[in-house]
Amino acid sequence: MNYKELLEHAHQQIKPYIHRTPILTSSLLNEISGAEIYFKCENFQKMGAFKMRGAANAILNLSEDQRAMGVVTHSSGNFAQAVSLAAQKIGIPAHIVMPENAPQVKKDAVKGYGGKITECFPSIEVRQKTADQIIKKTGAAFLHPSNNLDVILGQGTAAKELLEDHDNFDYILTPVGGGGLVAGSALAANFFSKACKVIGAEPKEVDDAYRSLLSGKIESNESTNTMADGLRTNLGDINFPIIQKYVERLICVEELDILEAMKLIYQRLKIVIEPSSAVPFAAVLRERNFFAGKKVGIILSGGNVDLGKLPF
Amino acid sequence: MNYKELLEHAHQQIKPYIHRTPILTSSLLNEISGAEIYFKCENFQKMGAFKMRGAANAILNLSEDQRAMGVVTHSSGNFAQAVSLAAQKIGIPAHIVMPENAPQVKKDAVKGYGGKITECFPSIEVRQKTADQIIKKTGAAFLHPSNNLDVILGQGTAAKELLEDHDNFDYILTPVGGGGLVAGSALAANFFSKACKVIGAEPKEVDDAYRSLLSGKIESNESTNTMADGLRTNLGDINFPIIQKYVERLICVEELDILEAMKLIYQRLKIVIEPSSAVPFAAVLRERNFFAGKKVGIILSGGNVDLGKLPF
Is A267 in Cβ contact with B307 (below 8 Å)? Predict the structure, then answer.
């Protein structure tokens, strides 16, 4: 199958496991930004984030035999919940490696969805090692949160829905963390729109994707000092070439931009989003002239926040 | 016209000025509560609360001559915004008397909707006196936030929509502050449903309505120590007889109940509500046995919160 067929297949097979999320607009936010914005509310998605799409697609693409042995992932957040819930609904075990310092609300959610948590020291190396041990013991299939083509294709279905529900977008914006959402969205826009381009929005504090596109090789972040806790991860060798080929550009935003955008979305759309979700709207506000008069889709990636730690 | 015709007329004439707000459900909140709950999202209403309905209806029922002289109200919050926005859309001046200590976010909103603010000392007597002075000077028509039949009928249209969109409700719950919403909803349920009863939910800290129903006369609150800042007002002589006749019962809830219900709505529905909106869901959780297995509509009255002052 080519990318177009793969996206169609992904969308078809995950439909019983996901919500077709609503799309909100606000005349006031259009006025403030100067653009015509359609917010795709993946914060209303099952388990509260778009990650449900990629997790379901990746599990459904495993063979019967593979599924029987279960799946394993390492994630501090939404992908852990997504794999847990998708596995539960499909009826297979899910092993989740989580850093000890992950927010309690996220650990509780994983448990609530039936995921089996193994806690580990919070470093990328130790996480992977812990996952490897589980794979050796159980034969479970490893699912990477973003550097996995089935995951990327699943994530692309949110943009596909946006393009089905509204015509003639100039741009779709997504946040960029591990790169799965922006890569999948760029594939969807390329194969399911006339001329819509995908732009990634990234916190300046973790601008690895921006620097990677400049240098032509995968760069890493030296610190992860952003409130957008879902975007602290790095690109991978599967999504990076897709991003290089299909993503129009990346826009970096400051922490204060994110805070301001997040506040406006809470105040005006009256919905709960996590800080990562505010990054694309922050990019539209920052590049007002670029987006003036344009029709813009924004993927609000998720709504799983620790309410006691809201940044305002 | 009888009440039924008045409600139909109100709904018809305010339609161009309001949103038909969405109704949300959550399988998890149904599981937690044991009831089947439909949340009517008046937090997504224009200016962020159901008050838009009553304000628009009251203004539209004024004569041309009355409208030309404008309207005046005293309100610390949502009704002030509602009158400002409705007056702006209808093209007449709105004078708003606000206590000096009203939250800045509410003052800014009133100004944003074109209302002319007169600040006054925060007491009910001084508010009314200030409004009276404006009436003398301008000839503006006074609109009471809740003790006005046209306002009550306008507020009732939210329950009417709920009853149009879903069948066979056992109960509709609303918060009780000044009594306009619960009275209007009770009229709507009486005239537009087979057997749906309306229940009011009230913070124990401001249980004037509860005590009024017990004693048979309008009681007042000695303190207003509740986080549900929209519910600190008292019943009036126009809505009280309607409440006595048509409201099934009132349920009082503790502050901790409100906090818990509010948190669940933020976490699970992923929407922004003000504390007053959480009071009916708190009542359902508190009286779990009473509501078990029942089909319940809840009017989420508004979403105008000061984000810096969320109670969690």
Answer: yes
Give the helix ranges, DSSP H, for chain B.
3-14, 27-33, 51-60, 64-68, 78-90, 104-112, 124-138, 149-165, 180-192, 208-215, 239-246, 255-264, 275-286, 288-291
What's the rounded Cα separation, in Å, for the pair A249 and A201?
Answer: 9
Of B44, B48, B272, Cβ closest to residue A272? B272
The bridge status of strand B36-41 relative to strand B23-24 is antiparallel
User: How many other CB atoms are found less than 10 A from the CB of residue B121?
Assistant: 12
Angstroms from A302 CA to nearest CA on chain B:
9
Whether pTM exceeds 0.90 = yes
**Residue B259 touches partner A, C-beta closer than 8 Å:** no
Task: Please judge whether B270 and A307 are an interchain contact, meaning their C-beta atoms are less than 8 angstroms apart.
Answer: no
In angstroms, rounded to a whole number, what is the distance separating the alpha carbons of residues B153 and B161?
13
pLDDT by residue for chain A (312 residues), tens only, comes to 999 999 999 999 999 999 999 999 999 999 999 999 999 999 999 999 999 999 999 999 999 999 999 999 998 789 999 999 999 999 999 999 998 988 787 898 899 999 999 999 988 899 999 999 999 999 999 999 999 999 999 999 999 999 999 999 999 999 999 999 999 999 999 999 999 999 999 999 999 999 999 999 999 998 889 999 999 989 999 999 999 999 999 999 999 999 999 999 999 999 999 999 999 999 999 999 999 999 999 999 999 998 988 989
Indicate the CATH number for domain B52-142: 3.40.50.1100
Torsion sign (Cα): B304, B309, B311, B312: positive
- Residues B158-194: b if buried by 16+ CB within 10 A, e if exposed: bbbbbbeeeeebbbbbbbbbbbbbbbbbbbbbbbbbe
- The dihedral through the CA atoms of B230, B232, B236, B241 has a sign that is positive
Task: Decide the pairing of beta strands A71-74 and A141-142.
Answer: parallel
Q: Residue B96's beta-bridge partner residues?
A: B73, B117
Q: Are the C-beta atoms of B159 and B189 separated by less than 8 Å?
A: yes
Domain range annotation of chain B: 3-49+148-309, 52-142
Strands, sheet with B23-24, edge to edge from the N-terminal-most edge strand: B23-24, B36-41, B295-300, B171-175, B197-203, B247-253
Choose from B44, B267, B269, B309 for mutation: most chain A CBs within 10 A: B267
Domain B3-49+148-309 matches domain B52-142 at the CATH topology level: yes
- Test B263 with A22 for CB contact under 8 angstroms: no
Q: Which two tokens stand for residue A299?
A: 């993927």
Structure tokens at B102: 């009203």
Beta pairing class for A295-300 and A171-175: parallel
**B3-49+148-309 architecture in CATH?**
3-Layer(aba) Sandwich (3.40)
ipTM confidence? 0.92
Structure tokens at A108: 């509780």
What's the Cα-to-Cα distance from B241 to each of A192, B112, B179, B230, rounded to whole Å? 60, 36, 11, 22
Instruction: State how far the Cα of B251 lies from the Cα of B270, in Å rounded to an integer.
Output: 26
